[in-house]
Amino acid sequence: MGTRFMCTVESPIHQNIKEKIVASSEADTVHIFRTLHNTARVFKNKVSMEVVALERRPGGAKFEDVRELVSGARGRKVYELGDPDYGIWSAGIVIGLINDIPTCKDLLATLERDVEEIVGQMNAVVVTKSKL
């Protein structure tokens, strides 16, 4: 739900990043830090693909090899400046299902309605067992 709430009116991140999320598909994320045993899913951009390339080298990568690329300061600038290629930034695979930038109130109302509908559909297929 983090990626979904990033893409709301109230989210303090730059509008360019919100629009990038809306324009993206589930194929626009990538895992990094696998060789460091600290896997994270992030938006696929120049920086994250450079990290992946370093990790795929023979012998993998050490954190020192990627430290500058993945610094929190660079990631923060992505959200502040709106440049999606400036650093790594978290993005879940749900990114492919996000197609709007609602208010939090509207998002929660939609989630509630959708959950009620899905639970209702599930209840229709549940068969109660006989007492016999």
Automatic annotation (TrEMBL):
InterPro entries associated with the record: Aldolase_TIM (IPR013785)
Record Gene3D superfamilies: Aldolase class I (3.20.20.70)
Segment forming the signal sequence: none
PANTHER family assigned: 2-NITROPROPANE DIOXYGENASE (PTHR32332), 2-NITROPROPANE DIOXYGENASE-LIKE PROTEIN (PTHR32332:SF20)
The name this protein goes by in its record: Nitronate monooxygenase domain-containing protein
Highest classification ranks of the organism: Eukaryota, Fungi, Dikarya, Basidiomycota, Agaricomycotina
